[in-house]
Specification:
The chain is an alpha/beta fold and 242 residues long. Helices cover 24% and strands 29% of the residues. The chain has a domain of 149 residues: Rossmann fold (3-Layer(aba) Sandwich). The structure holds zinc ion (ZN).
């Protein structure tokens, strides 16, 4: 019997508390919108936010998380290094991680990528068209050739990331820029997916295609059964040495 995937949705949760227009879009917070959708799609969902003790990410929470979703923007620097270390350690041991939108500048994403993760941006509410460039990939399941978001912040290349293992989406923006907006990685035993959309002033996390991609990515990123890996000195060969 398949067991339900245990998801923790982590959100900085500052914009929604400080800006009434953003609070009107996400009355339960960005984490609440994503969590609500995933609960309706067979996941066991927990939420955690920056201002909780340990940012809501104790070892107990992480030990019971198959996939962690991360949204942050204005307070990346307030995330404690020791928590970043714990998340990093859990990813290497197999926890999936989905980094959304401005999470490209989070400590955990930069740590896992090893690059600046810098990019171009413009906030003009322009149209974004996300093309599927890995047809048949499980993260693009149900999406078709492309989908559009009517109003979004622009992110443009060059995006200073390592070459993705699989590039699932490329975004085109009305102003002419393009961006690698759905990027798959593995680090240690963990799978990582970066997904671009989700500026806080637009209702992006209410859009069915965006939520579908996040839900697909949860399924893709969850840990898989694997044999114990051994390391180090191996004095006894498997075959006799002559
Ligand atoms: Zn943004």
């Amino acid at each position: 019997m398949a067991t339900s995937t245990r998801v923790t949705v982590w959100n900085e949760y500052r914009h929604e508390k400080q800006n009434p227009e953003i609070a009107a879009i996400y009355p339960q917070g960005i984490h609440g919108a994503i969590a609500g959708y995933l609960r309706g799609h067979g996941c066991i969902v927990h939420t955690a936010t920056l201002d909780e003790p340990h940012h809501g990410l104790t070892n107990h929470v992480l030990d019971n998380t198959d996939v962690l979703i991360w949204w942050g923007h204005m307070a990346h620097g307030e995330v404690k290094d020791e928590i970043v270390e714990q998340v990093h350690d859990h990813v290497l041991r197999g926890m999936g991680l989905i980094v959304l939108h401005s999470g490209h500048f989070s400590k955990i994403f930069k740590r896992l990528m090893g690059t600046t993760c810098n990019l171009k941006w413009r906030e003009a509410g322009e149209r974004e068209r996300l093309w599927v460039v890995a047809a048949g990939h499980p993260i693009a399941d149900g999406i078709g050739e492309y989908f559009e978001i009517p109003h979004e912040e622009m992110y443009g290349e060059f995006f200073d990331i390592p070459e993705p293992e699989t590039l699932v989406f490329v975004s085109w923006f009305q102003g002419g820029e393009v961006f690698r907006s759905g990027c798959c990685y593995r680090r240690g035993q963990g799978r990582i997916f970066y997904f671009r959309p989700g500026h806080e002033t637009y209702p992006t996390y209410h859009q069915p295609e965006v939520l579908r991609v996040i839900s697909n990515a949860v399924r893709w990123a969850k840990p898989v059964e694997r044999p114990n890996t051994t390391y180090g000195h191996r004095p006894e060969p498997i075959e006799p040495l002559k």
